[in-house]
């Protein structure tokens, strides 16, 4: 399990914006959906392409992979359409000392 990784100051990630950090070997995408923060692995489960290059759909709460169009729910990581069927890993997010933090909490 990784230690908490600093993402950015709370005021730097506005609604609809995203940021990527690395927790050891894991790229983590943090997204602000209307004030709620969510973190998922920045890797499409279909073809392992970075999700962070895709567009966030704030209304749906999803992100689309630009490579083949797979979409994932940012709140729980589940795949919303083919060609992806497996969910992306979801990670905890916390706000502490004026910053946003996340970590890879998998064992």
Topology:
Layout (H helix, E strand, L loop, with lengths): L4 E5 L8 E6 L2 E8 L2 E6 L14 E2 L4 E3 L6 E3 L16 E2 L1 E4 L2 E4 L5
Antiparallel strand pairs: 1-10, 2-3, 3-4, 4-8, 5-6, 6-7, 9-10
Low-confidence stretches: none
Number of domain units? 1
Portion in helices: under 10%
Largest sheet: spatial strand order: 2-3-4-8
End-to-end gap: 5 Å
Which structural category fits the helices and strands? mainly beta
Give the overall pLDDT as a whole number: 96
Radius of gyration: 13 Å
* CATH-defined architecture: 3-layer Sandwich
> What fraction strand?
35-45%
Write out the CATH superfamily name.
Rieske [2Fe-2S] iron-sulphur domain
The CATH class: Mainly Beta
Under CATH, the topology is which?
Rieske Iron-sulfur Protein
Q: Write down how many β-strands occur, each being a DSSP E stretch of 2 or more residues.
A: 10
């Amino acid at each position: 399990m990784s230690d908490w990784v600093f993402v950015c100051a709370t005021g730097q990630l506005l609604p609809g914006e995203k940021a990527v950090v690395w927790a050891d070997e894991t790229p983590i995408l943090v997204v602000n959906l209307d004030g709620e923060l969510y973190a998922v692995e920045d890797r499409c489960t279909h073809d392992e392409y970075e999700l962070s290059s895709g567009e966030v759909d704030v209304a749906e709460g999803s992100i689309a992979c630009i490579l083949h169009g797979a979409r994932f729910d940012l709140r729980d990581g589940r795949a919303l359409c083919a060609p992806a069927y497996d969910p992306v890993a979801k990670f905890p997010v916390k706000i502490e000392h004026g910053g946003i933090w996340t970590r890879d909490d998998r064992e």
